[in-house]
User: Fold this.
Amino acid sequence: MAAIAEGLWRPVCACPNAIPLVLTRRGVGLPTLAPAVALLRALARGGRSGRDLLVAFRVVSRFAQAELAGPLRAVRGAGLAA
Assistant:
């Protein structure tokens, strides 16, 4: 899961002006859905299914959005970019 998160985080942080778009727009193309599918598969391999899988996906997704929005990144310094 860390590889999935970092794979999403690095390109977005390389272009900070994209962050508001990533946080406020839903992607509908296959390239934008691929990371979500990868995350779901990783969570499912961890033994989650049904409602537990949905809850875990939402928790991880919201954490990632919060990280992109900045508060945690500012506290930790450069975050994953370091």
